[in-house]
Amino acid sequence: MSVVLVSLPGAPKVTEEALKKEEDLDKYLESRVEGKYGLGSPTWCLYCGAMATETVPNLPPGGGLASKRSVIEAMYNRLNLYREEEGVSSSV
């Protein structure tokens, strides 16, 4: 399989506004992960189900919550690691 990427000079550029929205969304998602994790130590599947029922502002069009999985998963794993260090175990 081959991929050819053509970049034209008139292609849209990333704006400061878009970068700011992305940063704000990441911070919001991290705060939600921390908030939900404080309620116990849910498994990854239960956690994703709970996040999917929420209305999250400023999600990227076409990608939705799935496009931010890496941010959510990184924060979840970081919190899970802290819990295991404290002696509380949680299965993913």
TrEMBL record:
Residues 2-77 form the Protein serine/threonine phosphatase 2C C-terminal domain. Keywords: Hydrolase, Magnesium, Manganese, Metal-binding. Its cofactor is Mn(2+). GO terms for cellular component: cytosol; membrane. The keyword Cell wall biogenesis/degradation does not apply. It catalyses: O-phospho-L-threonyl-[protein] + H2O = L-threonyl-[protein] + phosphate. Coiled coil: none annotated. Transmembrane segments: none annotated. Pfam families: PP2C_C. It comes from the Eukaryota. InterPro entries: PP2C_C (IPR012911), PP2C_C_sf (IPR036580). GO terms for molecular function: magnesium ion binding; manganese ion binding; protein serine/threonine phosphatase activity. Belongs to the PP2C family. This is Protein serine/threonine phosphatase 2C C-terminal domain-containing protein.
